Structure formats: C-alpha cells, structure tokens
Amino acid sequence: MRVVVTGSAGLVGGAVCARLTVLGHEVVGVDIAPSRGNAKDQVGVDLLDWPSWLELMLRVRPEAVVHTAGWLTPAVEATPSRGLAINYQGTVHVLEAARLTETRRVVFCSSSTVYDHARVVDRPIREDDPIFPRSLYATTKIAGEYTGLNYARRYGFEFVALRLAAVYGPGPSQSGVAGLWIDPLLRRVKAGLPAEVRRPTRRALDYVYVEDAAQALVQATLRPHLASPAYNIGEGRLRSFDEILEAIRQLRPEGEVRELPGERQTSPYAEASQPMDISRARQELGYRVEFPLPQAVGTILAGWINWVPGE
Fold it and tell me: Which pTM was predicted?
C-alpha cells in the first residue's frame, strides 16, 4: 500500500513510518522538520501551503493518509491563532486533498482530551461518551473529527479517528505530557544525571507508549474494513506519577530523583479522571497493549541513544 504520513519527523509519525516500512509498504513522509530517517522518502511540505501540498498528493496518489501532524497543547495555547491554523486548517487541507486524489482512507490522530471527563466518574471512558473539549488543542481535535466524518460521508472515502491517551517515548523533544515530565525524567536517568522534576497537578493519567500508538494507527490504516468511526487507544488504566518514579527506581536503583520546589506542573490532561475503555480497539482493530508502562520505561532506558545532556 502507498501511504502518506504527515508529521513524519515527530514522535508518533516517525514510529508509524517505521512500522509501515518494515511491513513492506511504500511510505512518503511529510514534515517541515528534519527527517529522523523513519521514512525512506520524506518531503518538506507545509500542510498550510495548499498548492505544494496538493501537488504532492497528486503526484503520490496514496491509498491512505495517516495524519499525525500538529501542535500539542502548550504550543497551541501559547500562539492560538497559529496553532488553530496548523491543527484545524491543516486537517482540512488533508481532507480536501484526499477528496481530490480519491484517497481511500484518512486516519486521524485525535486525543482523549476531547471527552467531557467530568461527566464520567465511575467507569472507563467509552467512545460514545459525551464530548466537551476544555482546551483549544482538544477543540481542534474534535473539530477535525467532525469535519473528517462529514467529508467522508459526502465524498465517499473512509475516515477514522484514534483518540490517543497521553503519548510518551524516546524521540524528539515533546511539548505535551512527555515533554513536561516523563521525557526529562528518563533522559536524565539514562545519562546518569539526577532526575529533577516538578510533580504534575494530576496524580494519575492513562498513558500510551509511542509504539502502541503506532501499532493502532497502522492497524487502522491496513484493516480492510473499519466498523467504527473512532477508537480509544491507551493502556486502559490510570498510572500515577509515583508509579512512573517507582518503575524508574526498580530499573535504576542507583539513580537519584529530586523533586523541585514551587508550583506543580500543569497537565494538558488536567480534566482526565478515568482511564479509557479500549475494548472496541481490541475487538475491531486487533489492538493490544504491548508496552505497559514498566516495560516501556525499561525499553527506553535500555535503548535510548544519541542523546547529549543539555539538549
């Protein structure tokens, strides 16, 4: 299959490119950031540059587009006009190009932040639970979902959204949850340095390791038939900050973790109070959690290379 992956230099997009390539598919990555080598062919096209983006899509004529490109919560909140354009107008450009090139399927990277977590307090979040985005970032995600579904309904291609839990993993510097505490913690521990961190405002979240997120996105791309318009992708359980620290200490007992004084770090997922129900993804996509948090932390600490302290 010929697949275009937007955001191919990013954490999730890069992992998707690598998986598709290993499986023997023709992958064209799209990103204005430098290539990380996960896509054999990466093109430096800005999704907001409509003529260049359309020209690329007309030349490649993909069977599917996996749309992972976009800004995360802190960047969108800091520069909302630009962030809304990148996240929403960029998605519109992906959908319009898919229409004009008769692309069969668009797989959209959405977020668990689209849910009204305050209204679900006694069970995991399901895909049909109420929607209420409480940030500009989450607003761009649910707007992208609704726009994609209506494009697909009107113009005859397939659209599916994967609502990812808080993604973490080794890779480029992150500005979301991973960039706030998991990423700095593991980078410093890996380098043999004291891990300095401010505790987050939320004690527990549903996380997803980047390889599990990529697994689900690839499954949604390749599956012959998709029965649902949206899928929850996470570990399906809450993990506390103390659990993350304990996983690190178990693997690196000689490591030092220092809690910095001052205000706690605010989480982009501050409203989340329940894990996500991932049973639909298991049943319909074949998704399974390959890297629960302790195993993922071990994988990162064992294999994180090419990082220089201070980067």
Answer: 0.92
